[in-house]
TrEMBL record:
This is Protein PET100 homolog, mitochondrial. Belongs to the PET100 family. It comes from Chironomus riparius. Keywords: Membrane, Mitochondrion, Transit peptide, Transmembrane, Transmembrane helix. One of its GO terms (molecular function) is unfolded protein binding. The keyword Kinase does not apply.
Amino acid sequence: MGGWKLEVFKMGLYMSFPVALFHWFNQPEYFEKWVIQTKRELYPPENKEQKELIENTIRKVREKQDIKLQDALKEYQNK
């Protein structure tokens, strides 16, 4: 039907499509933009206020646990 010209066109399309996609998606600008955006989504920049809040919360929880353990130890020793 199409002959050799159609086959040459199809072969050219089959070979150029993956090469074109490889070239398009491996551009340094595109890659850097994608990597930086993904990295910021996964690991947002640290906020000092949030970090202090988290540290204070951890400290309060540990203090409460220490008090409970000390009370349990005192009760055990008084028996």
